[in-house]
Write a structure and sequence with these properties.
The protein contains 13 helices and nine strands. The chain is an alpha/beta fold and 367 residues long. Among the domains are: 87 residues, Up-down Bundle (Four Helix Bundle (Hemerythrin (Met), subunit A)), CATH 1.20.120; 153 residues, P-loop containing nucleotide triphosphate hydrolases (Rossmann fold). Strands 1-4-3-5-2-6-7-8-9 form a nine-stranded mixed sheet, with helices on both faces. It is elongated, with a radius of gyration of 27 Å. It starts with a helix and ends with a helix.
């Protein structure tokens, strides 16, 4: 009996000793993390590779011709907003039913209740004088008011000017499936067409094909891609890309990030970490949020959360062709106070262009 009692006491003491060691180790780890928070810089041994472009690269299309082509495509798209506007100015008389139908069309095109009310009130006041006996005048009034809603005074220039001889750093963020990696590749083509030197950072390390896809985009226009192994720390890859961009003296480093659901707090925090780590060596001059224009109201919910986490400075609207609702441009800008800077209207490699309010409205009106 005495022997059993001694075994029990010994076991208890052993458990206490193990618990003390675990607590001491956890405290030491906590101290190290307090001293070196989640923005720990990548160690020199981090496995990051560089994909060199092949010879015989493509010459991207110039921005000016992109705008003309994309405007033509927008005017030819099956857009509910465009149809509603055309129907309005084709009427001989405007009764209450006509205005109700027009208002419903605007709201269904994701223009938003506030902007819709403003536009309808202005048009009713302007067109009440002469009606629509002069369709050309009606179209002129309609264009003017739409351009005003899109807000031509917003600064839509990209932050492509670094400081202290360092490159500009552009982060591209968004939820899964919006076309971020494709947008980064197309943006690289836009910049190369403007004679800028570019480096790509493949910080989407969760999707197996993302780095390969980005490297392919880079190879086609003679741009290097910095990438890590699958599952590597995204912040580490981004840091290495910017570090290499500084060493090479490039004009712009484009950092692709992994798609993440805006409802996943841990993943959103990690996105903030990527930005903070980059800014240890160079300012992030632009954060572009890529939104699928077909998502409508849900896109606004996503955008608000991304804006709060990484302070987005510009929006890229993809998939504005086909079933997209052009009114989302007005609503997303008004809700976020962030300008749409680039739009995508197709699957072609050069189907990305700077956003221009007048050209966009002309496209909607089929002009």
């Amino acid at each position: 009996m005495e022997h059993i009692f001694e075994l029990i006491i010994g076991g208890v003491l052993l458990c206490l000793l193990i618990a003390s060691i675990v607590i001491w180790t956890g405290n030491r780890r906590g101290l190290r993390e307090a001293e070196r928070p989640d923005e720990v810089l990548p160690e020199k041994g981090t496995e990051v590779g560089v994909v060199q472009p092949e010879q015989g690269v493509e010459v991207p299309e110039a921005a000016g011709s992109r705008l003309v082509r994309l405007r033509r495509r927008l005017s030819g798209s099956n857009n509910a907003l465009a149809r509603g506007l055309a129907d309005l100015i084709s009427r001989d008389r405007l009764d209450e039913d006509t205005w109700d139908d027009f208002e419903a069309t605007l709201i269904s095109s994701d223009l938003g209740v506030g902007p819709t009310t403003e536009l309808v009130d202005t048009l009713r006041r302007e067109l009440a004088i002469d009606g629509v006996n002069d369709p050309a005048r009606a179209a002129t009034v309609l264009r003017r008011e739409l351009v005003s809603l899109v807000d031509p005074d917003m600064d839509r220039s990209l932050g492509l000017q670094g400081s202290d001889g360092k490159p500009a750093v552009v982060m591209v963020v968004g939820v899964n499936g919006t076309g971020k990696t494709t947008t980064v590749g197309k943006l690289a083509r836009v910049l190369v067409a403007e004679n800028k030197t570019v480096l790509l950072g493949a910080a989407d390390t969760f999707r197996a094909a993302a780095a390969e896809q980005l490297a392919t985009w880079g190879e086609r226009v003679g741009v290097e891609t910095v990438r890590g192994v699958e599952g590597a720390d995204p912040a580490s890859v981004a840091y290495k890309a910017v570090e290499q961009g500084i060493a090479q003296g490039v004009d712009v480093v484009l950092v692709d990030t992994a798609g993440r659901l805006h409802t996943k707090t841990g993943l959103m925090d990690e996105l903030g970490k990527v930005k903070r780590v980059i800014e240890k060596i160079a300012p992030v001059t632009e954060v572009l949020l890529v939104l699928d224009a077909t998502t409508g109201q849900n896109g606004l919910v996503q955008a608000r959360i991304f804006r709060d986490v990484v302070d987005c400075t510009g929006l890229v609207l993809t998939k504005l062709d086909g079933s997209a609702k052009g009114g989302i441009v007005v609503q997303v800008q008004r809700e976020l106070g962030v300008p749409v800077k680039l739009i995508g209207l197709g699957e072609g490699v050069d189907d990305l262009a700077p956003f221009e309010a007048g050209g966009f409205v002309d496209g909607l009106l089929g002009q």
